[in-house]
Amino acid sequence: MLRKIVHIDEEKCDGCGLCAEACAEGAIAIIDGKARLVSESYCDGLGACLGECPRGAITILEREAAPFDEEAVLRHLGKDLGDGGRSPEIPVGSAPGEGHELEGSENVASLPRGQRAGGAHLPCGCPGTAVRELQPPAEKAEVTTGGGRGNASLLRNWPIQLRLVPVNAPYLRGARLLVAADCTAFAFPGFNPRLLEERVLLVGCPKLDDASFYREKLAGLIAENQVREITVAHMEVPCCFGLANIARQAIEDTGADIKLTVVKLGVNGDLLSMEKVELLSGRGPAH
Predict the structure, then answer these.
(1) Domains by residue range for the chain, with CATH
(2) What residues does 231 pair with on adjacent strands?
(3) pLDDT tens digits for 247-267?
């Protein structure tokens, strides 16, 4: 039938999950870092999600779509207790091709169980993506873990993956950021006390992930939250150097006055260099 239904611009979407939380029908889920329409029949087209999107990625279109099905929504949300709270729309163990289709042709039944439409109310179906501010210990006392001794964790935020952190996470406001390559914390024994203290951690891999996405995401974080400074920690291997360049370009994109420090770590656990990069009003390195 011809009716109104939400449309999600994946180019604008940064996967923050606010739209999924706002949708009472559970019609939206975060799949592979992007908001996706789980099923046309779950969307009532009223647009409760519109005002929650900080990127303006959601609009209402009038097009041919399956009709809104309130009974299917109730089953999808697990309110039909006759099936033990499991959605009969997407049976557990279904082979790909047997479930409902996501907008854009991905099949829900082929997704991991935690990401299936009936599996949870949180975006992407994973409680681990919920934004949390953590309280590091007041003193850097040593703690015993598994028979060994090490420094207490100074982690202040969750999630830490740059791809998963919403641009409007409360812990980003006026923050000092540590943008670290994935391998750094494993290689450098002084990661917590020397780099992480009083900083918000964002991690990623410039080799394996989308550098342009990282640049855009960092620029959005800077512009939205009046970030005070950024420290980039990368490994000495050539493929890791790009992370510092991504951060510098993101600062330039916003024109912000932010102190940038670049830390290079060795694969043997050494701190090889710590360089303060002077930027002139976000227009590039000083000469």
Answers:
(1) 2-128 (3.30.70.20), 132-277 (3.40.50)
(2) 178, 261
(3) 999 999 999 889 999 999 999
